[in-house]
Amino acid sequence: MLLSTLLFAGMNACVKQLHHLPALEIIFFRSIFSIVASYVALRRLGVAPFGNNYRLLISRGSTGAVALVCYFLAIQHLPLATAVTAQYLAPIFTAVMGIWLVREPVRSWQWVFFALSFGGVVLVQQGGPATPSAGPAEPADLGLVYLGIGVLGALLSGLSYNAIRKLRGREHPLVIVFYFPLISLPLAALGCLFHWQTPQGMDWLWLLVCGAFTQGAQVAMTRAYQLERLSRVAPLNYLGMFYALGLGYVFFGENFGPVAYAGMAMVLLGVGLNAWYTSHVDARSASLPPAEEVVA
């Protein structure tokens, strides 16, 4: 998951370089890269690309694709801080829905750690550099609509990650990754029919790198959700913020105030406490004798 968040941060930096291209166009090109890379890798491994658990695979692909569209719409029509904060609800949605969808309970103290991390994200966004609006300000009513779209995207991301968890041991990780561009490609292509701008010069290189980062991030994230409890790995998404802040400082000259650094400390504390607590509880549970031995 740490590798995944690093690669996603690199992808975001590429998207920032391509700010002049329509969002759906970037999704279109990165989907082409991912679908080709996944198919070639699966054929070389001798794995059937379309898998066997079609219902879950389509669920993962469709919820992930629509969540991505919602996220890009929120970024285009809301202040960046608001859009990103809404997306950071996804790890919490993932853990909460996992209680019912994959029967993985969230322990009481974990709720405290989730709240601590999310509060830190809010502080970082409030204390970060001002981001100029990409266009005219949205009316208040439309702003609420796009905020709702951003929250919907986070909710759909949670559903998508739970589908990945349910596919553990049933499908190869690359098969799961393959279904994401398989569904997002036609959705993005439909949007490109109404708004197209041909990439120029270095745009093609950035699109290629963006696709490579996306593919690596998806594979790493899928493997993480298959191997570990949702409530344990989902909060690690928040650490992607640190990668993004570092890239923003080095490549885009973005500086942050003391409020943002306080928020970073809260995020790190929340994630660290969650990891320590789940490891401690799991180790203690593993050391207990089976119930029948206790009764005997």
UniProtKB/TrEMBL annotation:
Record's bilayer topology term: Multi-pass membrane protein
Cell compartments where the protein resides: Membrane
InterPro entries given in the database record: EamA_dom, EmrE-like
Ranges where the EamA domain occurs: 1-124, 150-273
Gene Ontology terms: cellular component: membrane
Broad class of where this protein is predominantly found: membrane
Xref: Pfam families: EamA
Keyword vocabulary terms for this entry: Membrane, Transmembrane, Transmembrane helix
TM region(s), chain numbering: 23-42, 54-74, 80-102, 109-128, 143-164, 176-198, 204-221, 233-252, 258-277
UniProt keyword Transmembrane present: yes
Name of protein: EamA domain-containing protein
